[in-house]
Automatic annotation (TrEMBL):
InterPro entries: DedA_domain (IPR051311), VTT_dom (IPR032816). Keywords: Membrane, Transmembrane, Transmembrane helix. The chain crosses the membrane at residues 21-41, 47-64, 71-94, 118-136, 148-174, 186-208. Residues 51-172 form the VTT domain. The keyword Zinc-finger does not apply. One of its GO terms (cellular component) is plasma membrane. This is VTT domain-containing protein. It holds the Pfam family VTT_dom. It comes from the Bacteria. It comes from Candidatus Jettenia caeni.
Length: 209
């Protein structure tokens, strides 16, 4: 088998695995354990799991709209705690766990970019991490490798992750299932706009103090 064919087959297998994990994630919304699964998924996605918790958060919020914000809080708590676990992986076990995780997902190149961002401004880098399409696990592991201040990491993670999940919860609560296609198509644009506002606000506060 040629190298190109082997790589193509590998990508197909990964795509198939990703789809099965996606469907497995969504099935928890139809069980009594949806909230627990959401917390666990948010925790694991922050360090190694490929499926973002947004998909289960939306499914649960669609099923019981009045609990949308409760689910957002559960998702936020799991994500921040999972981020601390990712930080620990980067801090203590990067060569044994962190690097293999990055290599598996093919995001090692993004890791170098994130390290440069941490050197520039750790708080903004983590805050941006909660919204950008770059997998959050890259930022959590890199934070540990760079040994940024743990409280800076936790506070910035809490702000950004909560912001992301509560925006989804609010849109779901107000508009219901009909907002799903809009979120799927435009949420990255919404999140980038939020990040821009966050960064502008940060610098305004810095200039006034």
């Amino acid at each position: 088998m040629k190298y190109e064919e082997a790589m193509e087959l590998s990508q197909v297998k990964k795509a198939g695995l990703h789809r099965r994990l996606y469907e497995w994630t969504l099935h928890w919304a139809h069980t009594p354990y949806g909230a627990f699964a959401l917390f666990a998924l948010a925790f694991c996605e922050s360090s190694f799991f490929p499926i973002p918790p947004d998909v289960l958060l939306m499914a649960l919020a669609f099923s019981i709209p009045k609990k949308s914000f409760k689910y957002a809080a559960i998702c936020s708590a799991g994500s921040v705690l999972g981020g601390c676990f990712g930080y620990f992986i980067g801090y203590q076990f990067f060569e044994y766990l962190g690097l293999p995780i990055l290599n598996f997902y093919g995001i090692t190149d993004k890791f170098d970019f994130v390290k440069e961002e941490y050197n520039a401004n750790a708080f903004i880098a983590v805050a941006i991490a909660g919204f950008t399409p770059i997998p959050y696990k890259v930022f959590t592991i890199a934070a540990g490798v760079c040994k940024i201040n743990i409280w800076t990491f936790i506070i910035a993670s809490a702000v950004s992750r909560s912001g992301r999940f509560f925006i989804i919860a609010a849109l779901t609560y107000v508009f219901g299932p009909k907002i799903k296609d809009f979120i799927d198509k435009y949420f990255n644009i919404i999140s980038i706009a939020f990040v821009i506002l966050l960064v502008v606000g940060f610098f305004i506060i810095k200039l006034l103090t």
